[in-house]
Design brief:
This protein is α/β, with parallel strands linked by helices. The chain has 8 helices and 19 strands.
Amino acid sequence: MRRNLSLAAVAALAAAALALAAPIGQAAQATASPSHGVTVAHACAAPTQKGEMACNALQVTAGTPKSAHAESDLTAAAAPSGYGPASLQAAYNLPSAAGGSGQTVAIVDAYDDPNAESDLAVYRSQYGLSACTTANGCFAKVDQNGGTSYPRGDSGWAEEISLDLDMVSAACPNCKILLVEAKTATMTNLGTAVNTAVRLGAKFVSNSYGGSESSSDATYDASYFNHPGVAITVSSGDNGYGVEYPAASRYVTAVGGTSLKTASNSRGWTDTVWSGAGSGCSRYDAKPSWQKDTGCASRTVADVSAVADPNTGVAVYDSYRSATGWMVFGGTSASSPLIASTYALGGAPSSGSYPGAFPYAHASALYDVISGSNGSCGGSYLCTGTAGYDGPSGLGVPNGTTAFTG
């Protein structure tokens, strides 16, 4: 049975889970206590063995998020709580009305959501978005090998799937969506699903899951994530300061998390570091050539970020099993598909390129995140929002698509 937890309790339990999953003698690094007045529950079960992943979706189960009834284009009575497409597009200056046509964003998750397509239809109808269905060629669902032998259903991962599909729809309504469902939540099966997404033509692949780093990561990198010409995004985790895999892979764009609120500045919005976002130095992955920070000799997480705080969460519709329809979600599971869709709005990456490098060449085209913290790291940029690059928010959040274009 899923339990309702304060964000502080979630962080404590997540730290314990990471400690169990970590190699012997390796301490867990999750130290943040992201308490904001709402109660949340992890959508997915914590990993119980090496090589197993958990999704990074947090459902608000009690309290009122600051993003409640945010959409000004809907009546208060009809509007679900949480940010919807209009708010997210405005906050990140996304050209969603005109961009993304012809691009396919792949979502990789574990287990089956039998209601994925019908729930997606409810979300898109609510916000006046065009239909995205199997019949019109916009939506497709396959198993990890590209067929239709779908895995068993899982209500927690179904919530993750709904969150992912809804965030692609919010950021890039004109994009096609490919859902690839892994047989289980192991890195081997999820990695196979990533390869299938690329084989089927997706140039943008979002992964909203993570687990403990291990000595197998270099093998996983070579087998599943080294896809030049494909933008692969991975959520950085919801456990505060500390690093998860595959966000640590040097071949992906690691996506951190922020709290997103309206503001009286010229942008109309402001982002601060979300205290639950993952960040820090990888134990195993080498630093990519485009990453120049000096606090980590190895790969530093994250690269960029977007909204992830459940207290400023997003609206999601899911009806499979224990779900109740409209809900509010946070976690870096929200930020990863938002960034994958932003890449898609910028157009297909050039052949042979590594899209993780793109934001580093256009850092000035991002909104910098200069405040907030996700834990204790001696006050360094690795856990503290600061001008320029920092761990929890990377180089910043989208300001249009320039930073995501090769």
